[in-house]
Amino acid sequence: MELKDSKLWRTQAYIDGAWIDADDGATNQVVNPANGEAIAEIARCGTGETRRAIEAAARAQKDWRSRPAKERSAYVRRLFDLMMEHQDDLAYIMTVEQGKPLAESRGEVVYGANFLEWFAEEAKRIYGDTIPGPASDRRIVVVKEPVGVVGCITPWNFPNAMLTRKIAPALATGCTVVCKPANATPLSAFAIAELADRAGIPPGVVNVLAGNTAEIGAEITGNPLVRKLTFTGSTEVGKSLIRDCAGTVKRTSMELGGNAPFMVFDDADVDAAVVGAMASKYRNAGQTCVCANRMLVQAGVYNEFAEKLADTVRELAMGNGLDDGVTIGPLIDQGAADTVKDMIDDARTRGATVVVGGDDGGLGGSFVAPTVLTEVSDEMRVFKEEIFGPVAPLVRFETEEEGIRLANQTEFGLAAYFYARDVGRIWRVAEGLEYGIVGINEGIVSNEMAPFGGMKESGSGREGSKYGCDEYLEIKYLCMGGLDT
Ligand code: SIN
After folding, report:
1. Type and span of the H or E element at 226
2. Cβ count near 38 (within 10 Å)
3. Nearest-angstrom CA–CA distance, 450 and 446
4. Which ligand 1 atom is at minimum distance from the Cα of 283?
5. pLDDT in tens, 267-311
6. Which residue's CA is the nearest one to ligand 1's atom 3?
7. Are the CB atoms for 428 and 265 separated by under 8 Å?
8. C-alpha of residue 327 to centroid of ligand 1, in Å
9. Nearest CA to 218 among 193, 195, 247, 198?
């Protein structure tokens, strides 16, 4: 292990300010997807540990919410500083458990930390309202209050940033959290818990545990002390969590699947579109909800774009994310790689051409070579499903209307991208797309200042930005009467 601070390598659960084993001593294995090596055994928690974490969070919330915003802000800011200080170690932990190249992991640590910095500032700006009342002896005052205990269930594709994107606004607004990171990548989350402890965040405010997903999920969704669930993951799991939360009418924020169109119009700067496509499609080996999923290219620039994209894809270096020069890592596991290869085979069988990639690049295991497919149609799985792998399927279209229709031909509505220069077209297309996020001549859209979230079956709620706190706040209306007497 190559950590400067070996205490960041935590494998126990963090509950009520203490590091604990599972009640029955059970463990789960964490595996490095680049080589299949077991790298850790973590505490396999279940119902009992989750219940204790929730109860600790409920106790802690009473004090936490009553602290001045400036004080909560200082704690969150301290966690930001610690994350930045330990950036290299956090990146190393992420690469060995998730597989992404070290440079990308470093980038994610900064991206994740930025949410803490942002919400530390927002904590001090949670304003209410006064509203003109219906009578002279009455005043209407609106105050914002924290929702309470928040359950945070996070995915393996961004083990750090998806957690901070939830913890930061929760803590800023006076909520406390019980976090369940993905079992494939819990080590980054435990390292953040270690830093939260060092930041002096009081016991019970942040709790992190992993293990028996079904039991932990059932306790978080069923326990009435939890007042909100925030989840990032697949649409299928999100729907089931929404159903499970109905029993106690919890608030939910859902960041679910995507099927992002990446459109290139005839008037686009094709070279810029290739740069954007590379960033959007091959980031994290194609394993992001906002990754370009379908490349919709207008007929006039189709061949030029396909050739330039394929040439650039050939320059990617696939391998173990710890190795110098590697620009694309493995997928999270063999099952994920098999699913993506099945989708490539489906496209090939239905008439698509594999221009680059299409196999495991000779590395086997969880690897899928960066791939470009041309002559893709809307009959193919790569058009209809979220690929979650490094495959760019190119679909040809003729008119702007056809392009917009194809782009919206999905149940998802998270991110969309398009490249064009004509200002009239830019507005028409931007307004025609049924997506929560639209990148216009830009392939990277995620940052802490902007509202991240989707429409349709891609979810509800927004994370980051000035809107991010709203998801963790209740609006309370105070009707003040009898003021004339
Ligand atoms: C995700 O894939 O869930 C998040 C991607 C991002 O934050 O850019």
Report:
1. strand 226-232
2. 9
3. 7
4. 8
5. 999 999 999 999 999 999 999 999 999 999 999 999 999 999 999
6. 289
7. no
8. 18
9. 247
